[in-house]
From TrEMBL:
Key word Oxidoreductase present: yes
Protein name: FMN dependent NADH:quinone oxidoreductase
Free-text function comment from the UniProt entry: Quinone reductase that provides resistance to thiol-specific stress caused by electrophilic quinones. Also exhibits azoreductase activity. Catalyzes the reductive cleavage of the azo bond in aromatic azo compounds to the corresponding amines.
Enzyme category, top tier: oxidoreductase
EC number(s) stated in the UniProt entry for this protein: 1.6.5.-, 1.7.1.17
């Protein structure tokens, strides 16, 4: 199998979401040492933001695209090809301003591409799911300064990270039961609740890796909150 790991934190050694991602991958490789792991570091190397030229290129049939238009779409082409090769996608990300960091949103903007990864179906009055990640699994590993973003939690109404990633993932073909979320919380507090959250999330990420690597059913996990 091929794993694609998308890291979205601009922090390196201090990043908690990167720690979760590393723990997941290490556990996975302990069970499946011959699997491939590709790293796409959008937190350090930002995907380009969309431009008018990008949009125009997207809507231009392939055979009519100019060399400049093909160049404008080169990042998107490479990122989509990477996703297509992945059997399992791991997104390790901070929560910024209650949602995903701009760099991760920019990556989604590059891979959710009209005429390439989805098409309008006006007759059906619906947007069909893309086959790109159909039947595949997405693991979301997040870190937040605050806490209680889960169902019934104090900040449930401010939770725009998981629902947004879930919607984008669904657009790419990931079924709801195939998205798993493990979260670190309380980073801003730096107290015992945070230490416990880090421990639980590391355990949760490793347990999830073991289950998925053995192809056991894994429930949608939220380690804390
Ligand atoms: C610019 C910025 C915005 C943040 N916004 C939020 C937020 O809205 N809610 C929250 O719970 N934590 C917020 N945090 C805290 C981060 O989610 C937390 O520090 C997390 O551990 C960062 O991920 P990392 O450790 O992988 O870098 C923010 C941090 C920064 C730097």
């Amino acid at each position: 199998m091929n794993l694609l790991v998308v890291n979205a934190s601009p922090r390196r050694e201090r990043s908690l979401s990167r720690r979760l991602g590393a723990a997941f991958v290490a556990e996975w490789l302990a069970l499946r040492p011959h699997d491939g792991v590709v790293q796409r570091d959008v937190g350090i190397e930002h995907p380009p933001l969309l431009t008018e030229a990008w949009i125009a290129a997207c809507f231009t049939p392939d055979e009519q695209q100019t060399p400049e238009q093909r160049e404008v779409l080169a990042y998107s082409d490479a990122a989509i090809a990477e996703l297509a090769r992945a059997d399992l996608v791991v997104i390790a990300t901070p929560r910024y301003n209650y949602g995903m960091p701009a760099a991760l949103k920019a990556w989604f903007d590059q891979v959710i591409r009209i005429r390439r990864t989805f098409r309008f179906d006006r007759a059906e009055k619906t947007w069909p799911l893309s086959p790109l990640l159909s039947g595949k699994t997405l693991v979301l590993l997040s870190s937040s300064g605050e806490f209680a973003f889960g169902p019934g939690g104090l900040r449930e109404r401010w939770e725009h990270l998981e629902p947004h990633v879930r919607t984008c993932a669904r657009y790419l073909g990931v079924a709801d039961g195939h998205l798993h979320h493990v979260a670190i919380e309380y980073q801003e507090f730096g107290d015992e609740r945070h230490s416990a959250s880090v421990r639980d999330a590391l355990d949760g990420a490793q347990e999830l890796a073991r289950r998925l690597a053995r192809s056991e059913p894994a429930p949608g996990v939220r380690a804390t909150g």
